[in-house]
């Protein structure tokens, strides 16, 4: 099959004009159905491949999406890995849809002025105000994770962090937990801020005092923090920073019986398989699906008909680290005399 076959080649083989070939291949015009099908068959036999980029340029599109990559030298390794995974997902989804990807560092918003993009994907919209304003000024639709895009053209992708945290806390509550500690990541990354806020709101609604501890990126402080929260009366731990397996192993090393002595639920997007193998109850989030969600919604987001919101799926996976829900004692029925 050759991608060099042109409309003129098909027209020569079919004995019609190139205008007729264009109408047939794009299902336009009023030609007879049998003629249209004959032209399509000849095009397929010759191995004709439509030039998506040429068609896109004629419609004012570029078949290119931008990806904002953080370039802070002080950024933690987990944040770098998450962005790298999102970039990989975007490249794969873009290739499947005939798009290319342009990577833009978040520290140089001036680069926006020299780019032509169909959309700009921002995995973390916080801290990128200048870059976002520059893109909006040029009319480029913004696609952002867990951040509402205020504009007529754009897409907000809700990855489900807050909903997953609430579901995990509800699971612990149903299993009888009364004092739930929340472990987050030190540094205040956007995902951790969302998880912590969801935990604090959940605790406030139920009249519980929050018990939050921040774990360093290297996990060196994890043993001490677990000891601290248990000393503070925690009977359950929600691991909200991809460290569910680490917490599980640390509890075992402390010779605590799980879930009798302490229950555990983990939030994860990269270690879901490990949590499943260990039997850790976890809520699995799929931020890697954001890129495909963008392409599923991109045609509408390119129109001036208001911002769009898409919710990604997530799953609560029960394991052996939580107890079955506590049974509610029902009054005994009165026997008839």
UniProtKB/TrEMBL annotation:
UniProt keywords, alphabetically: DNA-binding, Transcription, Transcription regulation
Domain of life: Bacteria
GO molecular function: DNA-binding transcription factor activity; transcription cis-regulatory region binding
Species the sequence originates in: Microbacterium oleivorans
Protein name: LacI family transcriptional regulator
InterPro entries referenced in this protein's UniProt entry, alphabetically: HTH_LacI (IPR000843), LacI/GalR-like_sensor (IPR046335), Lambda_DNA-bd_dom_sf (IPR010982), Peripla_BP_I (IPR028082)
Residue ranges constituting the HTH lacI-type domain according to the UniProt record: 5-59
Database matches in PANTHER family: HTH-TYPE TRANSCRIPTIONAL REGULATOR GALS, LACI-RELATED TRANSCRIPTIONAL REPRESSOR
Pfam families on file: LacI, Peripla_BP_3
């Amino acid at each position: 099959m050759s991608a060099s076959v042109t409309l003129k080649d098909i027209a020569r083989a079919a004995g019609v004009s190139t205008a007729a070939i264009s109408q047939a291949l794009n299902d336009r015009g009023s030609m007879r159905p049998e003629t249209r099908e004959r032209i399509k068959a000849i095009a397929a036999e010759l191995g004709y491949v439509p030039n998506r980029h040429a068609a896109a340029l004629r419609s004012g599109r570029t078949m290119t999406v931008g990806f904002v990559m953080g370039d802070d030298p002080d950024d933690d390794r987990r944040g770098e890995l998450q962005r790298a995974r999102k970039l990989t997902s975007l490249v794969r989804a873009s290739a499947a849809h005939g798009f290319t990807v342009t990577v833009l560092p978040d520290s140089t918003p001036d680069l926006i002025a020299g780019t032509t993009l169909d959309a700009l994907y921002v995995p973390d919209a916080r801290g990128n105000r200048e870059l976002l304003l520059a893109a909006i000024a040029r009319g480029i639709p913004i696609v952002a994770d867990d951040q509402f895009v205020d504009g007529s053209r754009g897409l907000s992708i809700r990855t489900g962090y807050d909903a997953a945290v609430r579901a995990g806390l509800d699971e612990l509550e149903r299993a009888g937990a009364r004092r739930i500690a929340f472990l987050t990541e030190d540094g205040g990354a956007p995902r951790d801020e969302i998880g912590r806020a969801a935990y604090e709101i959940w605790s406030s609604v139920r009249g519980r005092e929050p018990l939050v501890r921040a774990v360093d990126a290297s996990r060196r402080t994890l043993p001490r923090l677990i000891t601290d929260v248990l000393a503070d009366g925690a009977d359950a731990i929600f691991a909200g920073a991809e460290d569910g397996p680490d917490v599980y192993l640390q509890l075992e090393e402390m010779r605590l019986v799980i879930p009798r002595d302490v229950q555990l639920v983990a939030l994860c997007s990269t270690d879901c398989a490990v949590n499943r193998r260990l039997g850790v109850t976890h809520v699995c989030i799929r931020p890697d699906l954001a890129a495909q969600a963008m392409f599923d919604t991109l045609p509408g987001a390119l129109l001036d008909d208001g911002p769009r919101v898409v919710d990604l799926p997530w799953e609560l996976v029960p394991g052996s680290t939580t107890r079955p829900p506590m049974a509610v004692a029902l009054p005994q029925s009165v026997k008839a005399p």
